[in-house]
Design brief:
The complex is a heterodimer of chains A (262) and B (186).
Chain A (H helix, E strand, L loop, with lengths): L2 H4 L3 H6 L4 H11 L3 H22 L7 H13 L17 H20 L10 H12 L12 H7 L17 E10 L2 E10 L4 E9 L9 E2 L4 E5 L2 E8 L2 E8 L2 H13 L2
Antiparallel strand pairs in A: 1-2, 2-3, 3-7, 4-5, 5-6, 6-7
Chain B lengths: L5 H11 L3 H12 L1 H17 L9 H20 L25 H6 L6 H7 L3 H12 L4 H8 L3 H18 L1 H6 L9
The chains are: A alpha+beta (262), B mainly alpha (186).
């Protein structure tokens, strides 16, 4: 390989995109071409200088302390509002597969932990946080489609059947795998597009003492966390939770409509 | 937000706060100095809310993924751009507006002093900028970047290649001025 042949390959070599055969040919050429060697050396030094310069961003004094303060303040208040979702739905199936493996692994880890050191379960809080974090952004959903397809997607991901009932006034958007008390749970999300309201239906295996601290009636256990209301009902060893931004009465009305379908 | 005991909060802080500077640095290059701390705070709050689900050994890629989501959320709120990064969107400069990024004038107005290197970085599309920062400044692997950006590894590599090349082109005059790379390849 002569200089004219090697010269246009230097940038691909730097970028790591040159195929092995040509990489070898260029490397052999470098030993006999000072011009190409000097270019590569300069680019390497320039890269190091750029890296050092970009790392040199002054951090505001007290940043860490302000983050701590922010967390402490938020711990005692409701989660901030989250933006509405865009209408475009992008599914992240490769990420979903990775997440599924991750969650199953996490479940086994949780099984092995020392339960005596675990904090008391705050089921309403956990469900509300899950809803706030995932329901408002459909890029975070892992599956979409008709109700049967969404239900089927959970088939090999959670050890219980998942239903996708109608929620009056809302349209099914999709679902994702989440955790409740560290174990895999199914989250199905519905949207009322006109009102920009979202409802999550979460199905999970009943954790020990999960309804402690909730208000219970014949059918439902209810609770609120900030502006998010939760209604939970039982089906054998399973729990279903309807979670939504809104009043407890609204959530109970929707939950009743869902229970009536079963 | 769920109420947690002190041990939970301390564990979160011990794992994540050592990365506050790197999260701030990346936020700085996404939204500029004026909003970087706000975006950093938002990232840590969201991370705290989701901490029960975190089981990985290294919180750094996880924090960057949350930062990216917080950034995209911010862009959506401003309704400047759909702000959804397609799985393999072939970005070319000028093909779409830059969401949330301050203009050069805004950066100067907010007292953001920058040199040729930083200006060249700001000239990159935000997707390229983030990939380059994660790879060359924060030392994430291709796989970790793919998870943060939710794109295939091949797309990470091609985006990184283009970003580095564009940066070199932007820095041509600067490099010559300081004695590097006096010739143009190609």
């Amino acid at each position: 390989m002569n200089h004219d042949e090697a010269w246009p390959l230097l940038d691909p070599l730097l970028d790591g995109t040159l195929d092995p055969e040509r990489r070898w040919l260029v490397a052999a050429h470098l030993g006999e071409c000072p011009r190409c060697g000097a270019y590569l050396a300069d680019q390497a030094r320039l890269g190091a200088m750029v890296r050092a310069r970009l790392r040199d961003v002054p951090t505001p004094p007290g940043l860490t302390e302000r983050i701590r303060l922010h967390l402490a303040q938020a711990e005692g208040t409701a989660a901030p509002p989250v933006s509405r979702r865009p209408r475009q739905l992008i599914l992240l199936l490769p990420a979903a597969a990775v997440l599924a493996l991750f969650l199953v692994g996490a479940w086994w880890l949780v099984q092995a932990r020392d339960d005596q050191s675990a904090p008391a379960l705050d089921l309403a809080g956990e469900l509300a946080a899950t809803h706030t974090l995932f329901a408002h952004d459909d890029t975070l959903l892992e599956v979409a489609g008709d109700p049967a397809a969404v239900a089927a997607w959970f088939g090999d991901k959670v050890p219980f059947p998942v239903a996708t009932p109608d929620v009056p006034g809302y349209e099914l958007q999709g679902g994702r795998l989440v955790t409740v008390d560290g174990r895999p749970a199914a989250m199905v999300v519905y949207e009322n597009e006109a009102a920009q309201q979202y409802v999550s239906l979460v199905t999970f295996a009943a954790p020990v003492g999960d309804l402690a601290g909730l208000t219970t009636s014949d059918v439902f256990a209810t609770g609120t966390q900030g502006e998010v209301a939760v209604a939970i009902w039982s089906e054998g060893d399973l729990r279903h939770a309807l979670v939504a931004d809104g009043s407890q009465a609204d959530v109970l009305r929707l939950a009743t409509a869902v229970v009536d379908q079963s | 937000m769920p109420q947690h005991d002190g041990a939970h909060t301390r564990r979160f802080e011990a794992l994540t706060l050592p990365h506050a500077k790197t999260v701030y640095r990346t936020a700085y290059y996404l939204v500029g100095r004026q909003e970087a701390e706000d975006l950093t705070q938002e990232t840590f709050l969201k991370a705290y809310q989701a901490f029960d689900g975190f089981r990985g050994p290294d919180p750094k890629p996880w924090l960057f993924a949350i930062l990216r989501h917080a950034y995209l959320d911010r862009c959506r709120r401003r309704s400047r751009e759909p702000a959804i990064v397609a799985l393999d969107f072939d970005v070319s400069p000028g093909s779409r507006p830059e969401p949330c990024a301050p203009s050069a004038e805004e950066r100067v107005l907010h007292g953001q002093l920058e040199d040729d290197v930083q200006s060249a970085l700001w000239a990159l599309p935000h997707d390229w900028r983030l990939v380059l920062l994660l790879a060359d400044v924060e030392d994430l692997s291709y796989r970790e970047i793919a998870e943060v950006m939710q794109i295939p590894i091949g797309t990470v590599m091609s985006r990184l290649c283009r970003a580095r090349r564009r940066l070199r082109e932007h820095l041509g005059d600067y490099a010559r001025r300081v004695g590097y790379a006096v010739e143009q390849v190609g």
